[in-house]
């Protein structure tokens, strides 16, 4: 079953593959798998009825292996992932899209290279730029197709980045509210979070 076959060749292709149950510490979610033609895989987790026409509490979470799976304290990603799942569980309804866009789109190995530059004094934006990448390379159009497949017409997005809302709207996603998600600040990511606030517009309170 295909969730989207765009007529515009500039549009990303993504295909729905299958769904299954995913029991977690925050409840039993449904996990939906999607695949791009090049083999890149993405998943969406849903809880409760999300296709009823009402705005859905959602997190569009870009993959962060170091933070999500290896418990890194250099960022707040893993903390945000857990907090988002907990918030969806409390509400009894919501969606988490896990997008394979490591390092704001530069990939895992380049992220390690960026971390090395940060070890030498560069901030998170400077490191990406020194490697020849923009500060943020993510493409959220695939998320629109995933949401469409799930029957989600509008979202209340858990994010600290107001600019992300503009990016999502430009990608065709109907965002009706920004829900703050401020967790995980620690001595190892303090400068990283300050840089995100100063250079990327994130709304963060120290």
Structure write-up:
- The chain has 2 domains: 19-101 and 138-185, 3-Layer(aba) Sandwich (Rossmann fold), CATH 3.40.50; 109-134, no CATH class.
- The longest helix is centred in the middle third of the chain and has 15 residues, at 77-91.
- The chain has 7 helices and 7 strands.
- It starts with 14 loop residues before the first strand and ends in a 6-residue tail after the last helix.
- The protein has helices spanning 65-69, 77-91, 108-119, 124-130, 141-150, 162-170, 190-200, and strands at 15-24, 27-35, 41-47, 56-62, 94-99, 155-158, 175-179.
- Helix 3 crosses helix 4 (124-130).
- The model is unreliable at 1-7 (pLDDT under 50).
- With 206 residues, the chain is an alpha/beta fold.
- The protein has a 7-stranded mixed sheet, with helices on both faces.
């Amino acid at each position: 079953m295909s969730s989207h076959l765009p007529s515009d060749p500039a549009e990303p292709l993504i295909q729905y593959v299958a769904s299954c149950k995913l029991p977690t510490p925050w409840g039993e979610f449904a996990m939906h798998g999607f695949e791009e033609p090049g083999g890149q895989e993405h998943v969406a987790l849903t809880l409760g009825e999300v296709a009823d026409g009402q705005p859905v509490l959602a997190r569009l979470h870009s993959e962060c292996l170091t933070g999500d799976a290896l418990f890194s304290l250099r960022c707040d990603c893993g903390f945000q992932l857990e907090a988002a799942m907990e918030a969806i569980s409390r509400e009894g309804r919501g969606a988490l899209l896990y997008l394979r866009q490591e390092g704001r789109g530069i990939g895992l190995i380049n992220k390690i290279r960026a971390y090395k530059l940060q070890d030498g004094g560069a901030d998170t934006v400077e490191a990406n730029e020194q490697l020849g990448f923009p500060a943020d390379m993510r493409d959220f159009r695939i998320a629109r197709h995933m949401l469409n497949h799930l029957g989600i017409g509008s979202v209340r997005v858990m994010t600290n980045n107001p600019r992300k809302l503009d990016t999502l709207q430009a990608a065709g996603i109907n965002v009706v509210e920004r829900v703050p998600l401020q967790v995980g600040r620690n001595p190892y990511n303090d400068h990283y979070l300050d840089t995100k606030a100063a250079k990327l517009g994130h709304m963060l309170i120290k």
